[in-house]
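Researcher: Good morning. I'm working through a list of sequences from a screen, and I'd like to move beyond sequence-only analysis. For each chain I'm collecting a predicted structure so we can compare shapes side by side. This is the next one on the list. No need for commentary yet; just the structure.
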Amino acid sequence: MSGIKVTRENIDHALGFTDSIVNNFPRRLAGSDSCLRAGKAIADEFSRTCDRGSVKTEEFTFHPRAFLKYIRFEVVIYLVSLALVFLHKPVIAGVLLSAGICVFVSQFVFLQGAFRSFFS
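Model: Good morning. Structure tokens for this chain:
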């Protein structure tokens, strides 16, 4: 089986590059200026060391607080559903809980983001 031989020089270069990203671009919160500049530096490095046409960057919409913000919504849905059960409205409670489960599964389990814009 033939493959690419990894040398000590390759390893040192990779570790040095990683150190330079960590040291030169602190606090890389996703979407921040530091993060974008780090991404540009990584793309530049990959363009020099990988197949020239294989490196691409993409723009995307980012909602940094949306990932866990729906949990408040879930708690309210649960409490309202609990109250509806005590008020003998189990069908409405079931519908609300089902909606809450759909939001949870799509956001947290499958990371779909279908409801992301509602919670940003």
